[in-house]
Amino acid sequence: MSGLTVTTKDRIATVVIDRPPVNALSRETYREIRQVFDSFRDRDDISVVVLTGAGDRVFCGGRDIHDLRVERSGPKPLNVADPMHLTREAFFAVRHCAVPVICAVNGAAVGAGVALAAVSDIVLAVRSATFALTEIDVGVLGAASFAQWMVGPAKARWMFYTGQRVPAEEMYRLGAIEAVVEPTELLPRAHALATVIAAKDPVAIRMAKASTVRTDTLPLETAYRTEQDYTQHLSAYPNSAEAISRFVDKR
After folding, report:
1. DSSP code for 174
2. Hey, which bits of the chain come out as E strands?
3. Which of 238, 235, 234, 218 is nearest to 226 (CA)?
4. CA-to-CA dists, residue 68 to 71, 82, 160, angstroms
5. According to the model, what pLDDT value does residue 1 have?
6. Is the pLDDT of residue 248 over 80?
7. Do β-strands 108-110 and 166-167 pair in parallel, antiparallel, or remain unpaired?
8. Considering Cα of 108, then 181, then 187, then 44, what sign does the dihedral take?
């Protein structure tokens, strides 16, 4: 069981991590995440993705340690120079998804769960959700670089070295997540936001996503020049002229 379910409706794709009991990720799940999020590049019926976990307790419990133990006890991987490429490719497939990704954190986000939230565009979380980097407790490392995007270097180091959990309210205070909601409100709120995005021009929203991914690690001058390049690119599409006409004509 690799662990993803995907449904689509009204230009919104909902991707659910479904690997009981704690939605931990196996090698095959990482492979499936990469394939699913890469596939949205070629789907013109999708404008936004909602990513969440099954159940009401854990969004993503991180790497499946049982699967990791089996992996380490088996034959050495063929890709000896880069044996952990699947993990990296899965995270970057979410980050580079052709359309915006809304992460609806329905419970604990641990290790890889923090990384998945960090590479999403917008994060909502239930009030009981927590975020933790517990790799230090199981003999592995990872995800601190992703946590820095959410909470800054100092807090990320604290999370990395201690393995302690950070409540959703604290993540909100630090600006890491958009909103903290009650469990019954999480998916309705995520899909309401997705509906707003899905109503935008599909060409414009994809260019906006591409522009954001390319500029968020660049110096200001280079980033803004890149945004201008994307604006010029978008202006060549009829969609842009029509949007201007709608605004001017108050349609």
Report:
1. T
2. 4-9, 12-17, 48-53, 58-60, 101-105, 108-110, 122-126, 130-132, 166-167, 179-181
3. 218
4. 5, 16, 20
5. 45
6. no
7. unpaired
8. negative
- What the block records as the tokens of 162 is 């201690």
64-102: buried (b, 16+ CB within 10 Å) or exposed (e) per residue?
beebbeeeeeeeeeeeeeeeeebbebbbebbbebbbbbb
- pLDDT tens-digit readout, 126-180: 999 999 999 888 777 778 899 999 999 999 999 999 999 999 999 999 999 999 9
Tokens coding 5: 């379910």
- Whether the CB-CB separation of 202 and 44 falls below 8 Å is answered with yes
CA distance 97 to 36: 9
What DSSP character marks residue 25? B
For the cut 90, the answer to whether the pLDDT of residue 239 exceeds it is: no
Closest CA to 178 of 50, 42, 4: 50
Q: In this structure, what token pair is assigned to residue 27?
A: 């090698």
Q: Identify the pLDDT of residue 240.
A: 66
> How far separated are the first and last CA of the chain, in Å rounded?
49
At residue 72 the predicted structure's pLDDT band, cuts being 50, 70 and 90, is: low
The pTM of the full predicted model, rounded to 2 decimals, is: 0.90
